[in-house]
């Protein structure tokens, strides 16, 4: 298949491009800059210029491909409404292009905010509905397109998609530890996260493109529950700094944006995903990645 990948040069996207190419697929990767185009081309993929606001480019990429993997997001923490607007418009454009084709459309989402008080399971629908909701309600928008002849699937990612070179949440935690000279956890450190290695997440995306039934919700979760205190302790060992509790009222000042997430339990199960697609995570776990030096540079 020719697969159109948005966010092709990103953390998860670049691993997904590698996975798809290794499986024999052709990849058309959405890129915004010359450096991203060069990186995507060097892998053996085709660079497709555009961004989430260039709806004509998205329309052309989707029309010219056998499947779409949508991983890009503006992630504008200062203006989330703009991120949500752009996401909604981009997804609507690509779904309209794919309607009636039965082609796969795989969309990324996060686990946060779906349920409270227990791990999220694949049968839990996202409460984000409509253009004014989180991510513009794009998960539900995509899954509803199954009745329009789109083989849509949502992949929900653990808060830590980890590995060497990660620039996500754990990297921000490591940067805070370097800045303050201590590796912190919030309160008693009992909040928990799920995690998945980047290569395992990419393999799940490829399996979703190839085999996921229309309307599937899938969880990129290898480790279901890891205490945030254990993450802080591993970072403390790796960075050779003390480990300490941070008062919740000081979390934003100490950690920055990631403090809100580090104070929030974000866990999920993935049994349905594993059974449905025979997905077996094989990468190192998060603590192994941290202690092996993946976050020391």
From TrEMBL:
- Which InterPro entries does its entry note? Epimerase_deHydtase (IPR001509), NAD(P)-bd_dom_sf (IPR036291), NAD(P)-dependent_oxidoreduct (IPR051783)
Q: Where is the NAD-dependent epimerase/dehydratase domain?
A: 3-82
Pfam families (UniProt xref): Epimerase
Q: Which PANTHER family match?
A: NAD(P)-BINDING DOMAIN-CONTAINING PROTEIN-RELATED, PROTEIN YEEZ
The protein depicted here goes by the name SDR family oxidoreductase
Could you read off the lineage of the organism from its UniProt record?
Bacteria, Bacillati, Actinomycetota, Actinomycetes, Propionibacteriales
């Amino acid at each position: 298949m020719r697969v159109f990948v948005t966010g092709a040069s990103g953390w998860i996207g670049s691993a997904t491009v590698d996975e798809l190419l290794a499986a024999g697929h052709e990849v058309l990767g959405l890129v915004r800059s010359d450096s991203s185009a060069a990186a995507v081309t060097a892998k053996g993929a085709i660079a497709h210029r555009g961004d989430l606001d260039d709806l004509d480019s998205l329309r052309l990429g989707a029309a010219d491909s056998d499947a779409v993997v949508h991983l890009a997001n503006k992630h504008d923490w200062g203006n989330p409404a703009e991120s949500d607007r752009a996401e909604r418009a981009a997804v609507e454009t690509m779904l309209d292009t794919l309607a009636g084709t039965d082609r796969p459309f795989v969309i990324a989402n996060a686990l946060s905010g779906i349920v409270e008080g227990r791990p999220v399971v694949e049968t839990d629908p996202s409460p984000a509905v409509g253009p004014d909701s989180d991510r513009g309600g794009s998960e539900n928008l995509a899954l509803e397109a199954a009745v329009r002849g789109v083989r849509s699937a949502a992949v929900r990612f653990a808060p830590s998609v980890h590995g060497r070179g990660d620039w996500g949440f754990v990297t921000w935690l490591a940067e805070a530890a370097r800045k303050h000279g201590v590796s912190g956890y919030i309160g008693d450190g009992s909040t928990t996260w799920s995690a998945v290695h980047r290569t395992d997440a990419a393999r799940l995306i490829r399996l979703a493109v190839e085999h996921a039934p229309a309307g599937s919700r899938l969880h990129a979760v290898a480790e279901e529950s890891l205490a945030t205190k254990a993450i802080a302790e591993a970072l403390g060992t790796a960075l050779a700094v003390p480990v300490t509790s941070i008062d919740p009222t000081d979390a934003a000042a100490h950690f920055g944006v990631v403090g809100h997430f580090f104070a929030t339990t974000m866990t999920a199960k993935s049994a349905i995903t594993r059974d449905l697609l025979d997905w077996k995570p094989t990468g190192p776990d998060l603590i192994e990645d941290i202690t092996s030096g993946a976050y020391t540079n």
